[in-house]
């Protein structure tokens, strides 16, 4: 006799229940999600290496130079109007729907304005970079601003609620989508338009995921006066700090575009892409794992904040410092392994950019912790110190040694604010100097090993023991 039709449904329900039971069992083993975050980034870096081996053989260095210009313009516009909305959502007292709807509305207005500026001002921007041929690419790359503005705030609220694992899975899926799109488009187009198309596909993916894969507040156009005033108190400090950040992070690209051939800018863009992979891991760890944990501890029991500050970041930051040091010492070896002869020389730029990453490792946790403590101006003050460094050391480097020395001085700007940030940490009773010195020690060890590997390979090639590659 045939069984009733309800059994397939029961089997499906049992399967769902079993999956939830399995997820509940393994979740404690995943801890705060930092292991998943790091594993995801390491996997993405490995996949990025593989995709780079393919794409760099399909595209010329000039293609990366064009993308470097486009990304620089988009970054500058984004930072000029940066309101710190991501940090604002995470540190907000309750994260209620009305406040979040106001944040969403403000972001939509801001991004619509940025889209208009980039789209209609594309010709002006291209002339500023002395590259009128990239006008159309700049215009097309304005659309991600609109797509980002339409996204739900579910991603930010999930960060606030420490949903690291789910966000990491979505980021990984986005990366795979963009990587595959880039490879396929590069195979058929053989121009920088392959990367432009992949950027648009990535933005569409995030838009869809924010509404379908995560839970967020109801979307409604709202400008609540009380919440707008609260936002203004926050972003009137953040915006000046962000404008200085533009100078620090994008001046290198501007210098390269003005004083070096576009192929050399392409090498710098390749190095920046590798450095951004490490920098992205640092930023995502701080904003998704460290800051929500520290902010929650500060809200619930401020007396435990000092212990949480170091407990939440100690092992991961030391591991990251060791990795950054390895790139600092062995950057040229990594480029030699990954790319063909067209890209030799990018390793020097990668090593210089790792100095910025080291400053980021010190600075980002401090800034987020001190902002959480209520001193929002810390980012502005730190950036003013960095700006002074750029004006003094950068000018001297350019006069004495030329544009390349200026690039090196700009990469050192991030480190110039570390003493001030450590002093702020001490002022709020959070500093443990011994813990901070461990970061430098881990980076030095990584740099020594990285350089030893590079020197060893060069010696083996010179002796004819291994072939040149």
TrEMBL record:
Pfam families: Polysacc_synt_3. It is found in: Cell membrane. GO terms for cellular component: plasma membrane. It comes from Hyphococcus luteus. Belongs to the polysaccharide synthase family. It comes from the Bacteria. Keywords: Cell membrane, Membrane, Transmembrane, Transmembrane helix. The chain crosses the membrane at residues 63-81, 108-130, 136-157, 169-189, 195-214, 234-256, 268-287, 316-337, 405-425, 437-466. InterPro entries: Poly_Biosynth_Transport. It is a multi-pass membrane protein. This is Polysaccharide biosynthesis protein. The keyword Transmembrane helix applies.
């Amino acid at each position: 006799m045939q069984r009733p039709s309800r059994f397939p449904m029961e089997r499906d329900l049992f399967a769902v229940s079993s999956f939830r039971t399995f997820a509940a069992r393994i979740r404690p083993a995943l801890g705060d999600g930092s292991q998943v975050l790091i594993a995801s980034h390491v996997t993405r870096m490995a996949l990025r290496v593989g995709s780079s081996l393919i794409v760099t053989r399909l595209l010329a260095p000039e293609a990366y130079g064009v993308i470097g210009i486009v990304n620089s313009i988009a970054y500058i516009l984004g930072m000029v109007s940066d309101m710190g909305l991501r940090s604002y959502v995470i540190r907000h007292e309750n994260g209620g729907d009305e406040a979040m709807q106001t944040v969403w509305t403000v972001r939509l207005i801001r991004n619509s304005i940025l889209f208009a500026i980039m789209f209609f001002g594309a010709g002006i921007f291209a002339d500023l970079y002395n590259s009128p041929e990239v006008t159309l690419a700049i215009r097309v790359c304005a659309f991600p601003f609109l797509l980002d503005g339409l996204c739900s705030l579910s991603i930010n609220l999930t960060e606030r609620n420490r949903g690291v694992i789910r966000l990491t899975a979505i980021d990984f899926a986005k990366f795979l989508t963009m990587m595959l799109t880039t490879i396929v488009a590069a195979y058929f187009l053989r121009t920088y338009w392959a990367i432009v198309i992949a950027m648009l596909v990535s933005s569409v993916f995030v838009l869809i995921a924010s509404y379908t894969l995560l839970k967020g507040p109801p979307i409604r156009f709202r400008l609540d006066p009380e919440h707008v005033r609260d936002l203004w108190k926050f972003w009137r400090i953040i915006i000046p700090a962000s404008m200085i950040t533009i100078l620090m992070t994008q001046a290198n690209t501007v210098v390269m575009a003005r004083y070096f051939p576009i192929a050399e800018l392409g090498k710098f863009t390749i190095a920046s892409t590798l450095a951004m992979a490490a920098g992205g891991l640092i930023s995502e760890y701080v904003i998704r794992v460290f800051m929500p944990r520290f902010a929650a501890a500060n809200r619930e029991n401020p007396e435990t904040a000092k212990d949480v500050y170091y407990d939440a970041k100690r092992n991961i930051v030391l591991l990251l410092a060791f990795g950054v040091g390895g790139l600092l010492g062995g950057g040229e070896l990594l480029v030699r392994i990954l790319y063909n002869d067209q890209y030799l020389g990018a390793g020097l730029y990668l090593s210089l950019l790792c100095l910025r990453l080291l400053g980021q490792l010190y600075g980002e946790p401090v800034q987020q912790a001190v902002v959480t403590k209520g001193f929002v101006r810390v980012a502005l003050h730190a950036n003013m110190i960095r700006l002074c460094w750029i004006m003094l050391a950068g000018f001297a480097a350019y006069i004495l040694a030329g544009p390349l020395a200026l690039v090196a001085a700009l990469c050192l700007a991030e480190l110039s604010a570390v003493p001030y940030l450590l002093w702020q940490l001490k002022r709020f009773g959070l500093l443990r100097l011994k813990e901070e010195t461990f970061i430098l020690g881990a980076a030095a060890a990584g740099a020594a090993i990285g350089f030893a590997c590079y020197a060893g390979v060069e010696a083996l090639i010179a002796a004819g023991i291994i072939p040149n590659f």
